[in-house]
From TrEMBL:
The keyword Iron-sulfur does not apply. Gene3D superfamilies: B-lactam Antibiotic, Isopenicillin N Synthase, Chain. One of its GO terms (molecular function) is metal ion binding. Residues 221-320 form the Fe2OG dioxygenase domain. This is 1-aminocyclopropane-1-carboxylate oxidase 1.
Length: 372
């Protein structure tokens, strides 16, 4: 492919560089980033090069005693009021200060987690002809394979391919899902529905609300599973696996393999989220920060590119963006007072998502656009 032969220079440094032509050639190959790797590229295409703004982001945490996101053990959550109270308090502290935490003893079998990783690997390592059947940018489809949802909007592409599966509230027919991950995708979705319900109860309690409050607001009604595949990169210092961003949902449950690379932006530095076998990473999304009136924090995060690969992660986004809901979401009235006036205007989830997608992963929070 022609893009593989370009010198690795920042976009815009050459007057004869046709960025759009290169993007279209890459997109129309329908082979994704893995297709470049399989073709033996030694230099990444120019449109993957990080922008100057990204080049000057704060350095990663180099402290000899680095910060770690909280790890919360969910053991005893159903049969001990005292233990449940402790867990709620831990989630409250983590969600208000970090916006990220890991959970262990969460009830999802380790075998399911491992098979979800392997199912993602199997799909991405299928022949190109198989994957091309799913490659599309048509958001009306419930199953989509593509590289960079914001390929034509972002300043720099990310070194990542993704399989999107819109699993709730109206899941695809089993035959619509790729055979390589069909059974595990269905089972994993069931597990995420159960765990998501529990987490929304705990977050409701952390906000001082009735346990079912967020569920009654339909925050748990829909979810999409994004299976990410990050191939080994020949020039990882020049690009990112995923650019700096926060998530445009209520809540994200992330399964990551043992390679690492996920970083959260905390106290003006990048903190590594260390992989823990059997753990799941939980993070607050933009919409939950909005309805909590900034009580809970949607933290910016990114994924580094790596010589080692492939890195695999699976994100479950809880959002109603893909259902026809016209419900308006604004700061929860029970959380407001004379001293805590609403910060955001009401918005439909689909309008929030449309704005988020239109700007791409530009390193800027979409939340500021919806402030009063």
């Amino acid at each position: 492919m022609a893009v593989a032969d370009e010198e690795a220079l920042p976009a815009g440094t050459s007057s004869n560089y046709d960025r759009m032509k290169e993007l279209k050639a890459f997109d129309e190959s329908k082979a994704g980033v893995k297709g470049l790797v399989d073709a033996g590229v030694e230099k990444i295409p120019r449109f993957f090069i990080r922008t100057p703004e990204e080049e000057h982001l704060e350095e990663s945490d180099s402290d000899p005693n680095p910060l770690q996101i909280p790890v919360i053990d969910l053991t005893g959550i159903e049969n001990s009021k005292i233990r449940r109270g402790e867990i709620v308090e831990a989630i409250k502290q983590a969600s208000e200060t970090w916006g990220f935490f890991q959970v262990v003893n969460h009830g999802v079998p380790t075998s399911v987690l491992e098979e979800m990783i392997e199912g993602t690997r199997r799909f991405n390592e299928e022949d190109d002809e198989v994957k091309r059947e799913y490659y599309t940018r048509d958001w009306a489809k419930k199953v989509m394979f593509l590289s960079n949802f914001d390929l034509y909007e972002s300043a720099a592409a990310n070194w990542r391919d993704t399989l999107f599966c819109f699993m709730a509230p109206d899941p695809p027919s089993p035959h619509e899902l790729p055979l390589a991950c069909r059974n595990i995708m269905i089972e994993y979705s069931k597990q995420m529905t159960r765990l998501g319900s529990t987490l929304f109860e705990l977050l409701s309690e952390a906000l001082g609300l009735h346990p079912n409050h967020l569920k009654e607001m339909e925050c748990a009604n829909g979810h999409v599973i994004l299976s990410h595949y990050y191939p080994a990169c020949p020039q990882p210092d020049l690009t990112l696996g995923t650019s700096k961003h926060s998530d445009p949902d209520f809540l994200t449950i992330l399964l990551q393999d043992q390679i690492g690379g996920l970083q959260v932006h905390h106290q003006n530095r990048w903190v590594d989220v260390q992989p823990m076998h059997g753990a799941l990473v939980i993070n607050i999304g933009d919409l939950l920060q909005l309805i909590s009136n900034d009580k809970l924090k949607s933290l910016e995060h990114r994924v580094l590119a790596n010589w080692i690969g492939p890195r695999i992660s699976v994100a479950c986004f809880f959002t109603t963006n893909y259902s026809p809901s016209t419900r308006l979401y604004g700061p929860i009235k029970e959380l407001l007072s004379d001293e805590n006036q609403p910060i955001y205007r009401e918005v439909m989830v689909r309008d929030f998502a449309a704005y988020y997608n239109s700007k791409g992963l530009d390193g800027k929070s979409a939340l500021s656009h919806f402030k009063i």
